[in-house]
Design a protein that fits this description.
Chain lengths: ~170, ~290, ~800
């Protein structure tokens, strides 16, 4: 079957999709976006996390046909050109990336968290990221990265002009 | 394999009538795992995502929540914790945030896994499943819904449209044991709901029998105990011995097995502990709110 | 030559070069990884590519009566269906012993053993083809570790004739260590108390997140190019060439992005299968395991049963230890012999004990093959000896940390192998440091809004609001060897090239080191910056065009390939400075005293004598060297004596746990570590290693186990093989000590594995402290804590 959807703002079409395929497979193997990772394909690791109509979901558990006419956002869409999103930059800076296989999913999930909660507590961060397994870091540097990203985003908000010049 | 994408509920029922073997897919968090691991190759998938009404809920005049089958757990946690506290607590323990953004009560019921976390709270609140087909609509009391391991009362041409859940009139609790502090399938689980107006207490046991089930003897015991001691009226302290006895009776209602997730003996033991604790939590809440109201 | 003392020529020589050794520059691959642009082995794609897949045995032990692949072959979209009969060369491979069939021959020996491989145009086509293959089995009772020891009664896992020289009965390898007077009656008489304990460690999985995967591309010269996630390119190739019937130059491996390894990629998995299918079809073949296949596709940590006896004097001096260890090696040898060597030689822990008798044995069974995993034989032992130390302390009424410190080894101590420790061994100091760290808050789960279940045992599952919760604290320390041991010719190769590009000196580093996430490439660039005084360092992809780097295992890569890069950079520097002699007429002694920093050549006093760009001119300097650590020797077969290990590494942990003693659920509240790393080449990365290793130890302590019943794996999924989530993992303060080892480059000490050892026993000790239960098995399950 054919599936037409939007990825990172771009209209996209995938042809010859087998009906049992996942969104993850379509992204990785058919539309050239292998950034979302395939660590388990059973919803347990979060490495495949993408936005689906604005909500982070495991793309391995979304049937390809279910994204027809919908909007998908992947890790590849987080940066603005060469400018990394603050979440991406914080993961690099804090040493939260080792093998990096968990990273794309964690970035999307953290991005969503910090959109919803500007100053999350440690417990909130842990609850929000509890569906993203990382086998390398022991999560300490990931916690650092999320706190760093939250602080930098707060600084950026403070620095942003609040007048009418908009 | 076919991929069927009805746009309306009526269309979905028609399609299901034509393809009774088509597997409905809502959040996909059960269906896709089976597909990815080659455990199941249905002739057709019946996608329910386009049917908007399944993602909505309404509150009826009698305060019953009519919860669309596909409403994801995260919505229940955010929007309905006051009306459906037991279900919201259960929902918060389902998988991970990503799973909760997709997984639904309709899917939990469709799969009818004994480990499903929606089941105990639904049993404890006395929910009703609204099942429909081209032949018409049936309201299936939750007590009659689970027939066996991963078997439910739906006919091949039926779909779940909504779940009718009475808004809580008293405290509700849900607890589940798993060997990890998040993202874990229940080793066993337990829900309890106080219904002060009806002077009733209902329960639900998960993952400790071929189907989710109520602990009827425990319910009868605590009902009688609360009546006999006048505790509903006095809102006095619940004796620990009563809570313990309740726990024992809950454990006795289970028929668990040994498997990789836990032993039968542990499941029984854990149910007794969870039942005792959650009963005390709800009762103490009830007393506190009672006092606050007084 | 008179020194020019113009201040503007002076450089700040005390500071390490920018982003040099001791700094924490960012990973060179970090940006790619956060953008999703880093190409892991499972991300590769090729025009016309086929998908490979394996049919695996559902039985642990069975004779194969027949294999019918005709229906699979007839299916449209299927390009090849291969059995062992289609293998052009040798049908066996293996890291230490070539005993493992590439595809099963007449018999399967473990659940999940591959029998047939298929190449098809889509994964689903391959799956359907596999479903059509008909295999007839004669199922036999499987041999477990107990049965293995009585082969006459229960049978042999391999025909005795096949063991050749390396084994007898079902025993793959055993090692005895006799130290002092062992556990003779006289020795026993010296002990006032003797504590005996039996311990068990379950089968742990590496559970790296990036599944086994790679892409094999047939080349025009009849060879194959394989892009692969592995730990050791050259030894993969060494095992593959005989199977493919190709000479090494025709089997070219390039490292693709690796999603973690932890020992699980030391053996080959899908490498040969992909190449066989590519050879057969003439098309590129990609294989990507799913999570279930991954559990079957790599070796695991050896389950162990251990019996320990520790004897001590009343005042707490250890007198003797006796240990008997049986490791379940599974169906094939993998690295079992080396794991046995480690278990035996490190089996008494970091303590000075005058007498010891240790026996370690690995057996062949019909369980999944076991081999390398972070900690490699030392993890299991550490759980045993550290539990013994706690029990001994209790028996003697001593503080457990004090007992350990009293008996701790130090520089100059003699190990039971007779080896004298000739580098710092700050065991007592590490214990002191973890003990002195401030303790975490009590009842941290209490908040103004009531209990926060996320901070309680059971977490989000809402099982307690404080009821039944008891705090416990536990300590442990461990010892791990670094590098390959027992006389293995351990070396690494590095090539460093220095040239002027765009007016600036640029270095290129080329090694075959597998970057699996540990940060080796970051460290290599730091070393080159420090040695050659350049800012810009580029990394060539790791491949087999340069010599072997050895495996990314045994905590050895910073030492070994780092050492090789340092040595190659030094060789480059010598050539560069020799050019100065030609160009500027420097005396040899003067040139030898110069250093390179900030793009200049400097005297010891920091005086600039030349620009690196001028010294280099148009001609690049390109040097390749092999680096070796001090030779080690094999352990004597009878006494276990010998200089077996080149370096030792130590870590101590303090664990603080809250246990819901009624439900048997555990929440680790804090896991503090102190570790000596000799020299933190990259402090950020070394702490990351300690965190990661500690967390894997946490997993083994309370949740991780591959459950095998009658040879069948019962939980090959992330649904039922649980690894710690971020909610299971506590804050982990780390204290890094840097006591240089004079024998190692920069004085560094391998760091990756030690934290995996002591974390497990520290956590279990804390659970014991909270519950008063003996807990002789890991992982600890709720059943153990509730007696159900
Ligand atoms: C990583 C992971 C963790 C999980 N953890 C938990 C957990 O902790 N607790 C828990 O309870 N579950 C858990 N699950 C299982 C799953 O998320 C739940 O069962 C969820 O409720 C399923 O909802 P869904 O909408 O995704 O169902 P789907 O997968 O879409 O469907 C599930 C079943 O219901 C049927 N179905 C769906 N909608 C209807 C309908 N309207 N009418 C009739 N039949 C229908 C489907 O055909 C299928 O048989 C987990 C799953 C994953 C992958
Ligand atoms: S790959 Fe989707 S959750 Fe693991
Ligand atoms: S960095 Fe390797 S899994 Fe997280």
């Amino acid at each position: 079957m054919k599936v037409t959807f939007t990825v990172n703002g771009r209209p996209t079409e995938a042809d010859d999709v087998w009906e049992g395929e996942s969104l993850l497979y379509v992204l990785r193997e058919r539309v050239g976006l292998p950034g979302s990772k395939n660590a388990c394909e059973q919803g347990e690791c979060g490495s495949c996390t993408v936005y689906l109509d604005g909500d982070p979901v495991c793309s391995c558990l979304v049937a390809a046909g279910q994204v027809q006419d919908r909007e998908v956002g992947t890790v590849e869409g987080l940066a603005q050109g060469d400018t990394l999103d603050p979440v991406q930059q914080a993961f690099v800076d804090a040493g939260a990336v080792q093998c990096g296989f968990c990273t794309p999913g964690l970035l999307v999930q953290t991005h969503d968290l910090l959109n919803r909660a500007h100053h999350p507590s440690d417990a909130e961060i842990r609850e929000a990221l509890s569906g993203n397994l990382c086998r390398c870091t022991g999560y300490e540097k990931i916690m650092d990265a999320v706190r760093l990203a939250a602080a930098r985003k707060a600084d950026a908000r403070d620095a942003a002009p609040t007048g009418l010049e908009g | 394999m076919e991929f069927l994408r009805p746009a309306t509920w009526e269309e979905a029922l028609a399609v299901k009538a034509q393809h009774p073997s088509a597997v409905p897919i809502a959040g996909g968090t059960d269906v896709m795992v089976d597909l990815n691991f080659d455990r199941h190759r249905p002739d057709a998938l019946l996608d329910l995502n386009r049917i908007h009404e399944l993602h909505t809920w309404q509150i009826a005049d009698d305060d019953t929540v009519r919860l669309g089958a596909s409403v994801p757990y995260s919505k229940i946690i955010d929007a309905l914790p006051d009306r459906l506290p037991g279900l919201a607590l259960g929902a918060r323990t389902v998988g991970s945030p990503q799973i909760r953004n997709r997984g639904s009560v309709g899917g939990n019921l469709g799969g009818a896994s004994p480990a499903g976390d929606a089941h105990p709270p639904l049993l404890a609140s006395g929910a009703t499943v609204e099942a429909a087909s081209v032949r018409g609509t049936r309201l299936i009391p939750i007590d009659d819904f689970y027939l066996g391991v991963k078997r439910n009362a739906l006919e091949p041409d039926e779909l779940i449209r909504a779940i009718h859940i009475p808004s809580a009139t008293g405290p509700q609790q849900f607890a589940k044991v798993g060997t990890r502090n998040a993202m874990v399938i229940a080793v066993c689980s337990f829900a309890v709901a106080l219904h002060p107006r009806a002077r009733d207490v209902r329960t639900g046991i998960g993952s400790a029998a071929p189907t989710p089930r109520r602990a009827s003897e425990a319910e009868a015991f605590i009902r009688a105990e609360l009546d006999d001691t006048g505790l509903w009226t006095s809102a006095g302290e619940l004796p620990l011995s009563t809570a313990k006895r309740f726990g024992e009776l809950v454990a006795r209602a289970a028929a668990p097995i040994d498997d990789v997730r836990g032993s039968a003996a542990y499941r029984r033991h854990a149910l007794a502990v969870m039942a005792r604790r959650t009963l005390l939590w709800t009762w103490n809440d009830h007393r506190a709110t009672g006092r606050a109201a007084a | 030559m008179a020194a020019l003392t113009k201040p503007k020529n002076l450089q700040d020589v005390a500071a390490p070069g920018r982003d040099g050794v001791g700094a924490s520059p960012l990973r060179p691959d970090g940006i790619l990884k956060v953008k999703g642009d880093f190409a892991y082995s499972s991300d590769l794609w090729h025009e016309d590519m086929l998908w490979g897949m394996a049919l695996r045995s559902p039985h642990a032990r069975a004779r194969i009566l027949s294999v019918d692949v005709s229906a699979a072959l007839a299916q449209p979209g299927v390009y090849a269906v291969l059995t062992h009969e289609d293998i052009p060369g040798s049908k066996f491979y293996g890291l230490e012993i070539r005993d493992q069939p590439v595809l099963a021959i007449d018999e399967v020996r473990f659940h999940g053993e591959p029998i047939v491989i298929v190449a098809a145009d889509h994964p689903e086509t391959a799956r359907r083809a596999i479903a059509k293959i008909v295999v007839e089995y004669d199922v036999l009772p499987s041999i477990g570790p107990v049965e293995a020891l009585d082969p006459e009664r229960y049978g042999y896992v391999h025909a005795p004739a096949d063991y050749k020289a390396h084994a007898f009965g079902n025993i793959v390898h055993s090692q005895h260590i006799h130290h002092g007077d062992g556990d003779s009656a006289e020795v026993r008489a010296l002990a006032d108390v003797i504590v005996r304990g039996e311990y068990e460690v379950g089968m742990q999985d590496q559970a790296f997140l990036g599944p086994e995967s790679g892409l094999a591309v047939p080349a025009e010269d009849g060879g194959i190019d394989l892009y692969i996630a592995t730990q050791w390119l050259h030894v993969d190739r060494q095992q593959m060439c005989p199977v493919l019937g190709l000479p090494p130059e025709k089997v070219r491996l390039t490292l693709a992005g690796v999603g973690g390894a932890f020992g699980g990629r030391e053996d080959i998995s899908m490498q040969v299968h992909a190449c066989l299918l590519a050879q057969h079809t003439g098309k590129p073949v990609k294989i990507v395991y799913n999570r279930e296949e991954s559990f079957f596709g790599h070796v695991h940590r050896h389950p162990a049963t251990m019996v320990f006896e520790h004897g001590a004097t009343r005042d707490g001096r250890l007198v003797f230890v006796k240990a008997e260890i049986v490791l379940d090696g599974g169906a094939y040898a993998s690295t079992s012999p080396a794991v046995v060597g480690n278990a035996a030689s490190l089996g008494i822990g970091p303590y000075v004990i005058p007498h010891a008798a240790v026996d370690a044995t690995a057996v062949y069974t019909n369980n999944p093959p076991c081999g390398a995993m972070r900690g490699f034989g030392a993890v299991q032992m550490c759980f045993g000896y550290e539990t013994q130390m706690d029990r001994l302390a209790a028996e003697l009424g001593l503080d457990p940390v004090e007992l350990r410190r009293m008996n701790a080894m130090e520089q100059g101590s003699v190990l039971p192998t007779g080896q004298v420790v000739d580098a710092p061994a700050p065991v007592a100091e590490l214990l002191r440091r973890v003990k002195e760290m401030p303790l975490p808050e009590v009842e941290n789960w209490r908040t103004a809004d009531g209990p926060d279940v996320r901070e309680l045992p059971g977490g989000l599952s809402n099982t307690t609001h404080g009821e039944g919760v008891v705090r416990g604290i536990g300590y442990a320390v461990g010892i791990k060897n670094v590098g390959f041991s027992e006389g293995f010719d351990d070396y690494s190769t590095a090539r460093v090239r220095l040239e002027v590009i765009g007016g600036a000196p640029v270095a290129l580093v080329h090694t075959a080191m597998a970057e699996v996430g540990q940060g080796g490439i970051t460290v290599h660039a730091q070393i080159v910056r420090t040695e050659l005084g350049v800012d810009q360092v580029t990394m060539a992809p790791a491949d087999t065009r340069v010599g072997s780097a050895g495996s990314t295992s045994a905590s050895r890569q910073t030492y070994m390939t780092g050492g090789a890069v340092k040595q190659a950079a030094e060789a480059v520097r010598a050539v560069v400075l020799a050019r100065g002699r030609d160009r500027y007429g420097w005396a040899p002694a003067f040139a030898a005293g110069l250093r390179l920093a900030g793009g200049k050549a400097l005297t010891a006093a920091g005086e600039v004598v030349a620009d690196l760009v001028d010294l280099l001119g148009d001609e690049p300097v390109d040097e390749t060297t092999e680096f070796r650590h001090r030779p080690t020797e094999a352990f004597d077969k009878v006494t276990g004596q010998g200089f077996g290990h080149v370096q030792y590494t130590f870590c101590a942990h303090r664990a603080v746990v809250d246990v819901d003693v009624e439900l048997g659920l555990v929440k680790v509240i804090e896991l503090a570590a102190a570790q000596d790393v000799g020299k933190a080449i990259n402090p950020l990365a070394v702490v990351g290693q300690i965190h990661g290793g500690s967390t894997q130890g946490l997993g083994l302590a309370v949740m991780e186990e591959i459950i095998v019943r009658d040879g069948k794996v019962r939980n090959p999924s992330f649904t039922d093989y649980l690894i710690p989530t971020i909610l299971d993992t506590p804050p982990m303060p780390v204290d890094v000590l840097e006591l240089a080892d004079a024998h190692a480059p920069y004085g560094l000490r391998g760091a990756g594995e030690a934290p995996t050892l002591s974390s497990t026993p520290a956590i279990v000790a804390a659970i014991r402290a909270a519950t008063g239960l003996p807990l002789n098995r890991v992982p600890v399950r709720p059943e153990h804590l509730t007696g159900t």
